[in-house]
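Sequence in, structure out. Go.
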Amino acid sequence: VLTDPVVPCGQIVALHLSIPSVFFLRVLPCSFDLEATQCPDPPSYVPRTFTDNSDHMTFIQRVENLFLKSSESFLCNFAYLPFELLASDVLHRPVTMKELLSHGSIWLKRMDFVFEYPMPVIPNIVFTGGINCGKKK
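Output:
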């Protein structure tokens, strides 16, 4: 199943039918993509999305990053609760969002290290950054 993990209905169907899933995304809110794939994501070194911080942060920026990381987990657990309840009903067992997304076979990420902060990744993450780049005039 080729699906977008922002709305995990495709992943719920893939798990229910026991077929592999391929995720196609740019970025997932709340760093669920990094948590599900078990990639390291320390808030003191990896800038949060939409903060415009670089990898060379001041102490205040690192504290801000840590605060945003902790608030992300609270807000996202609340936002994705309906999907967790739906998945639990369909799969007949309690399921968390992290567990739901951890079954992805391949993650096709529409990003490139030229535009983003380099980060450690696991082997089933493939960067397809060139598809978002237009030809220069």
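Check: The first strand starts at residue 2 and ends at 3. Residues 59-79 form the longest helix (21 residues).
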